[in-house]
Design brief:
The chain folds into two domains: about 10-80, no CATH class; about 105-350, TIM Barrel, CATH 3.20.20.150. It is globular, with a radius of gyration of 25 Å. Helices cover about 30% and strands about 20% of the residues. An eight-stranded parallel β-barrel has the order 7-8-11-12-13-16-17-18, surrounded by four helices. It has a four-stranded mixed beta sheet with strand order 1-2-5-6, with no helix packed on it. The protein has a two-stranded antiparallel sheet with strand order 3-4. It contains eleven helices and 18 strands.
Length: about 350
């Protein structure tokens, strides 16, 4: 039978697990005491792992709860468990905890799937454990073919947030007024979407590009930053590839951009894989240019951790020390032919990395 007593905080702990909740047992006044501590979210779980300790040996008992549709059903189901003679001097678990980390995904990682099935793709992303998404499907006021408010509702109904978006608009001096109007419309749409960041995904650079042309883009980005800020305080950023780490004259393009854009109006979303491919240190840049990298793309050649090229630990450590706000997994290439598997593998890599908060 169950014996209920007052809740002793120092004898109770709760760990939420993926599809599990661990209930700890304690002894009070030499009697077995059964303490339950649960929230509304408990109804999401289909299993309860009950860890029992008796005579310093661990007995693991599974209780399968079916058709939990409300609190009453849960209580009825839990009453089926009989506990007696328990000693709570040992606590353990055989399950992997659900990641409480705020891991984001750049939806370009699933670019083909989301074109065909927006809702289904986002549902799978949520089920993997991602909590935020960064879009890459804006066109003429719509996001992946949907009104921003509609796309936002789908995402939030799945328990996620749309916190950033990639767009591309090249600059031509002769069309400056038209281009700035494009940014006003795009910023308005993304304000409805609820993003905090709007990011230029790349800019055209080739072997003939001059530093004067780079300076023109720096001025352009400063102006765009004013527009996005006016649209609900959206921050404007630039996402790098590897070409920004070649020199024009004696100056690296990326360094020039950092030094010729306003920190108040332009941030840099560092793609840590491309900066590494460009022969530079991601952590080094984060430490040198304080407050310019609030957002990161966490990327590898394929799935995270597979290539052996990337050491993410010092990158995260540097980024956290400088106030990292968001980061997004991006998978551009896949080891197999299943992008969803690659994206899930990359989530698991970060979820299991001790240095990722």
């Amino acid at each position: 039978m169950f014996i209920y007593s007052k809740l002793l905080k120092d004898e109770l702990a709760q760990i939420k697990l993926e599809k599990y909740i661990v209930l700890y047992f304690a002894v009070y006044n030499s009697e077995p005491a059964f303490y339950l501590f649960f929230f509304e979210k408990i109804l999401r779980f289909k299993f309860i792992e009950i860890l029992l300790t008796k005579n310093k040996s661990i007995i693991l008992s599974n209780v399968i709860l079916k058709n939990m549709v409300n609190r009453r059903n849960f209580l009825k189901s839990s009453a089926a468990v009989v506990v007696g003679g328990l000693v709570a001097d040992q606590l353990a678990t055989s399950c992997t905890p659900t990641s409480k980390k705020k891991i984001g995904l750049q939806l370009y990682s699933l670019r083909d799937a989301i074109k065909d099935d927006v809702k289904g793709t986002l549902k799978k992303v949520a089920e993997m454990g991602y909590s935020t998404v960064e879009t890459a499907g804006y066109n003429d006021g719509k996001v992946y073919g949907l009104a921003p408010i509609e796309f936002k509702k789908i995402v939030e109904d799945l328990g996620m947030k749309v916190s950033s978006a990639h767009v591309v608009q090249v600059f031509m001096k002769e069309k400056e007024a038209e281009i700035m109007e494009w940014w006003k419309k795009a910023s308005g749409a993304h304000a409805v979407l609820g993003v905090k960041y709007l990011v230029q995904a790349f800019m055209p650079v080739n072997e003939q590009t001059t530093m004067d042309e780079i300076k023109l883009y720096c001025d352009y980005y400063n102006n765009v930053g004013y527009i996005t800020a006016a649209a609900g305080g959206i921050g404007f950023g630039y996402h790098n590839h590897s070409f920004e780490f070649r020199k024009i004259g004696e100056k690296l393009i990326y360094d020039f951009m950092l030094e010729n854009t306003s920190p108040n109006h332009v941030f840099f979303e560092m793609d840590v894989y491309w900066i590494t491919e460009g022969g530079q240190s991601a952590a080094g840049y984060i430490n040198k240019y304080t407050d310019r990298f609030p957002v990161l793309h966490i990327k590898d050649e394929k799935e995270l951790g597979v290539s052996g090229k990337m050491d993410f630990k010092p990158i995260f450590e540097a980024a956290y020390s400088k106030g990292l706000k968001e980061y997004y997994v991006e998978v551009e290439k896949y080891t197999g032919n299943d992008p969803f598997l690659s994206v899930k593998q990359s989530f698991d890599y970060l979820a299991n990395a001790e240095y990722v908060k």
